[in-house]
Structure formats: structure tokens, C-alpha cells
Amino acid sequence: MGGFFGVASKESCTFDLFFGTDYHSHLGTRRAGMAVYGENGFSKSIHNIEGSPFRTKFEKELNTLNGNMGIGCISDYEAQPILVRSHHGSFAITTVSKINNADQLVEDILKGTTHFFEMSNGEINSTELVAALINQKDNIIDGIKYALDVIDGSLSLLILTPMGIYAARDKYGRTPVVLGRKEDARCACFESFSYLNLGYSADRELGPGEIVFFNADECKTLVAPGNNYKVCTFLWVYYGYPSASYEGVSVESMRYNCGKLLARRDNVDVDVVAGIPDSGTAHAIGYANESGIPFSRPFIKYTPTWPRSFMPTIQTKRDLIAHMKLIPVHDLIKDKKLLLIDDSIVRGTQLRETTEFLYESGAKEVHIRPACPPLLFGCKYLNFSRSKSEMELIARRVIEELEGGEVSMETLQEYADPDNEKYQKMVDKICEKLKFTSLRFHRLDDMLESVGIDPDHLCTYCWNGKE
């Protein structure tokens, strides 16, 4: 996915920009960049961060990035921010986006008049495409509105100009944009906690489709927010850092509530409850406290060299690192009946290997409780799963195996219903394939209750196919 941070200050913005951007490192692993504007105009730096953390790549360049305004990003795909020269003047832009109709936009709307940078995977650079869409209109505000309207998928962005910074949130609010402020500076970011240690206090979250413009002195709303929004529920379940908050709901609190509601529907006989580090930990604590079963840490993630949840995009490398970074504590595993909570099951490969690793370490039983329902559809909005096909999802493979071939949307809805007989057959088959002692997924209604906001404002597409 990705995240961004922008700051406008009366002093140098470099320190705040550097650390504010770094606080988004859990959201991506491929590219990172910063662009600033100062007395000498625009300057920027972009690095590949697949092998090293953000800080190590940019520390030596901080003295060359001089300015009082800047934007930075962590990206899982395209190199950004990019610098653009157009009839709007020069500006830098960074996005968090997923554009499903990119080819159509290039062919039908831009009519091939603009050359686009093609990334190594053959896809168009999404941020460059957004900049080109903005340039179709007479002013930046209309251009941003146009881009938000024509893109199928999701788009939130920051645009750095010599006068200040534009910030816009996705039309349906699928990804967040949060504003912060302190004396002589203002900021905008994806993760609300990213500015706290930099001395900023919370201002507010942008509403769906809202566009603002800010400098060090003030922030003005240019386009008022809409009322219809669908926030990605996976922000709480998996993506978000524990200290983050979306729509006023803490990630850590939501995960704790998830575990609590999981426990209320369960009656399994186990010795300890554990979370898959790190996103399963709060879920497990909630489960343990509600059930009275002790919480334990039977394996530890080796954080000095693998601090982040996200890993390389090559699946074989991801599976290897997922295994290597977990260190067993044999005294807490041997002869124990373990209940593990993970945020989700996507392909199932990593969790199967973790289960095998626990059996090899002496575990008597391994019961799995994912903190969300089975994933039946590939995400259309945030690139949650890097699956190139929905058939890489373990639940979809099992459904087609049970049905003997391709299935209709109507049939998939039956498998999405936890009270349907087909649902239980799917769960039992997944449990058998992944070699768990038992498997129980979180129910969708319970998961939505764990968030605590109106379910009509939560995106659940990957679980039930409903937009």
C-alpha cells in the first residue's frame, strides 16, 4: 500500500518531514521519497528501501533537502514523489492509490498525448497518471476533483506547491488523511500518530472527497467533504500501526475488542493464547482477558533486522523470511495446547509453516483463530493482498474444489454466510489443508461490532463482495 506525510513550517521542515515519513514505514517496502520547497526551489530524493530501512537511506541527504515545506512517502509500488511542470506551474505530488482503470484513462481520456513512466512490472506509474489527470483541468482544485471522480479504485494525495500544500482524501474515504498542527507549523499524514512525537497536536481528519490547502499559518477547506464513505476495515485489523486511530477508533482498542468477541463464541480447551507477532498480539490479549486463558508469547519476532510486518514482494522470499524471523521459545511450546490468533489468512502458506514449526517445537495442539472472516475476494481498493488472482486466496481455492469448478456470486454469498452449511464445510477443508487442530474465523458481524462505527461506513468487499 503506502503512506505519506506533508509539512509546512515557518522554519526548516526537514526534521519533521524525515521522521514523519519514517513513521509510515510499516505501510510499504519498495520505495521512499521526499520532496521539499525552499529558497532554491524544489529538490527531492527517492530511494529503494527493499534492503534497508528508510532512515538509513536518507540520513546523509538531509543537509541537501533544504526548505520550509515538504512531502514524503513510503510506497509499495511506484517511485514517488514526482516533480511536475505544467500550466499549473511546478509542483510535487505523492499518492496512496489503486487505479483499476489506468489503461482506460490513458487511452480514452488522455488520448495518448502524454508519455507515462512504466514501472518494472509493466504497470503505469499511478502517481504520474494522477498528475496528468490533474493537468487536464484549468486549475489544481478542479484537477484534483476530476481525478477523484474518474478513478475507479481509491486515491488520496498530497501536492506541494511554492505557496503551500494541497491534501485530498479518497472520494469514499477508503484511506485516511489526518491534519495536525503546532506553533508555526501544520502537517497532513496517513497515520495519526506520526506527528505526536514531533510536537503536533491533532487537528482533524479530512472527510471523504474533501480537499484542503494549508501553509504554516492556516488550513482552508476548498471542497467540502461528502457524506457517503466506506473506510477500509483492514486498517484496523491489519494495516494500521497499534498507536494509530481512524475515524476516532483506536487500532489497538479495535483489535482488543476483536479478540474479546472471538472468545465469547469459543469454547476450545487450550493451555495458552498467543498472537502472531505483531498484528495478532492485541487480538490475543483481548481473547485471553475475556476467556481467562493465559496469554503467552511462544515465539518472538526478531525485530533488529526484520522490524516491519511487510516483506519482499517475491512470494518465495516472503515465506522464507516469515519463517526465519520467528524464534521459538521451546519452554512455552513443548507439550502445550496453543491457540493462535493471526490478523487473517490469505494464501495460508505462512500460517501453515508456522503451525508446522510449532509442532516441530513440541506443541501438542495448534488451534487457529483469524481476526477476520475468510477472504473471498481480492481487494479492489488498497492492494491488501499481492495475489495476482483471487484463486491464490486459500478460501477461493477450497470453494472451487468443493464445488467442482468455477462458482457464481450467488454461491460465494452462501460461503460468506457463517450460518450456512457450506461455510462450515469450507472452514473444515481449510483447517484440514493447513493442518490446524481446529479453525474458527471471526464473524463479519462481530468484527464490525469491534470497530464500533456504523457498518454502512465500513468497506467489507474482500469478505462479502459488497461495495
Automatic annotation (TrEMBL):
Q: Where are the transmembrane segments?
A: none
Q: Which GO terms describe its molecular function?
A: amidophosphoribosyltransferase activity; iron-sulfur cluster binding; metal ion binding
**Recorded E.C. number(s)?**
2.4.2.14
GO annotations under biological process? 'de novo' IMP biosynthetic process; purine nucleobase biosynthetic process
Q: What class of enzyme is it?
A: transferase
Which SUPFAM superfamilies is this protein grouped with?
A: N-terminal nucleophile aminohydrolases (Ntn hydrolases), PRTase-like
Report the cofactors.
Answer: [4Fe-4S] cluster; Mg(2+)
* Protein name (Swiss-Prot/TrEMBL): Amidophosphoribosyltransferase
Organism of this sequence: Eshraghiella crossota DSM 2876
